[in-house]
Amino acid sequence: MEVSQHGDVNVSLMRSTTHVTAGVGGFADITAHAKRLVFSGQFTAGRKDVRLGDGRLEIISDGKIAKFLPEVAQITWSGAVGASRGQQVTYVTERAVLELRDGVITVVEIAPGVDLERDVLARAGIPLAVADDLKLMDARIFTDAPMGLELGAPRRPLPVPGEIR
């Protein structure tokens, strides 16, 4: 996944192997109509040594290829079109959570152990805004223990097969 400074996303044409395309499949249909989009991928590409434990992420060596870029190789989803549709957009990576806010990619959370300047802002290929209320990602993500997640109560009762409602 590549993300442009305008929030555009490329999931189909990889720069390192331009002769190979992944194809968009149902991606275009799903992203065109969803009210909230969450894109996920690594913050950088290439060989890296990233370790997690004790509720922290440690970047020993980073990938050399930026994935947040001035322009993407191919626009598979348009940030401008998404904004015109009122879509809420979040980009989740191993070290940061970012949102598209008024056409600006904004860092809203960082992983515990990550240095905002060194590991996020300096490694992005574009300027990023930082939320005034920057938060830490949940430390449970960076442990090998169960997170203890539970499903909440359904918003409305689910129908019982054969029961008339």
Topology summary:
Layout: E1 2-4, E2 9-10, H1 27-33, E3 36-40, E4 44-45, E5 49-53, E6 56-61, E7 65-66, E8 68-69, H2 79-84, E9 88-92, E10 96-101, E11 104-110, H3 116-121, E12 129-136
Parallel strand pairs: 1-8, 3-9, 11-12
Antiparallel strand pairs: 1-2, 4-7, 5-6, 9-10, 10-11
Protein name: Acetate CoA-transferase YdiF
Keywords: Transferase
EC number: 2.8.3.8
Main β-sheet, in a few words? 5 strands, mixed
Strand numbers in spatial order across the main sheet: 3-9-10-11-12
Number of strands: 12
Q: What's the CATH first level?
A: Alpha Beta
Q: What is the straight-line distance between the termini?
A: 44 Å
Coarse morphology: globular
Keywords: Transferase
GO molecular function: acetate CoA-transferase activity
Protein name: Acetate CoA-transferase YdiF
Enzyme class: transferase
Descriptive account of the structure:
The chain is mainly beta and 165 residues long. The chain has a single domain (2-142), classed as Glutaconate Coenzyme A-transferase (3-Layer(aba) Sandwich), CATH 3.40.1080. 12% of the residues lie in helices and 32% in strands. The protein is built from three helices and twelve strands. It has a five-stranded mixed beta sheet. Strands 2-1-8 form a three-stranded mixed beta sheet, with no helix packed on it. Strand 5 (49-53) and strand 6 form a beta hairpin. The longest helix is centred in the first third of the chain and has 7 residues, at 27-33. The chain starts with a strand and ends in a 29-residue tail after the last strand. The model has no long low-confidence stretch (mean pLDDT 90).
